[in-house]
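2024-03-11 09:14:02 INFO worker-7 job=invfold-0412 stage=load source=structure_tokens
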């Protein structure tokens, strides 16, 4: 037989709600609070965050030329990198932050000089590719690097974008092509 619990209005000063029931009540309130908070947070995120930027055809073309340059530098192919950079300079239009380093890279006489200009292009490529599918933002994180080396110069460069999740480092070339990991 089920025991009837006294109603709060009929409780005397020395009586109280049994501890088991009080614990269930508190757990129920906590769960309801968590659910309400989750729903409100979801509505906030959906309503406030803008949808990901959709790349324009020109931006896609910029990233396509960038990928050719990145691949060429990862394989120490200066001629191919210079050719793709010249094409990128023509594609960039009035975007000086793309055309200026692309033009300089197209005129580079060494891989080192080309990689310095590629660093500037990479900053723009990372901006364009973030939140896009099909692009990986890569970085050499010294403590997570698959090819640790002494006096690693990667601290001078930074992040880059590529279309494969397998690292092909454009700043290190053939010598340490696998240096790097997916940063996001």
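2024-03-11 09:14:09 INFO worker-7 stage=emit residues=184
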């Amino acid at each position: 037989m089920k025991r009837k619990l006294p109603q709060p209005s009929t409780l005397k000063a020395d009586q109280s709600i049994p501890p088991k029931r009080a614990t269930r009540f508190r757990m129920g309130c906590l769960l309801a609070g968590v659910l309400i908070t989750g729903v409100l947070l979801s509505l906030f995120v959906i309503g406030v965050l803008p949808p990901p930027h959709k790349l324009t055809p020109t931006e896609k073309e910029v990233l396509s030329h960038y990928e050719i340059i990145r691949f060429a530098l990862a394989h120490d192919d200066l001629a191919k990198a210079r050719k793709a950079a010249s094409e990128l300079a023509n594609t960039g239009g009035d975007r000086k932050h793309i055309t200026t380093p692309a033009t300089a890279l197209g005129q580079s006489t060494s891989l080192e000089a080309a990689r310095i200009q590629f660093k500037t292009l990479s900053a723009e490529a990372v901006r364009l590719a973030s939140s896009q599918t099909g692009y990986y933002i890569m970085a050499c994180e010294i403590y997570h690097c698959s090819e640790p080396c002494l006096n690693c110069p990667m601290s001078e460069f930074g992040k880059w974008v590529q279309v494969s999740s397998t690292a092909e480092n454009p700043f290190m070339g053939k010598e340490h092509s696998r240096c790097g990991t997916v940063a996001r």
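2024-03-11 09:14:09 INFO worker-7 stage=report msg="Helices lie at 19-48, 57-74, 78-91, 96-106, 111-129."
2024-03-11 09:14:10 INFO worker-7 job finished
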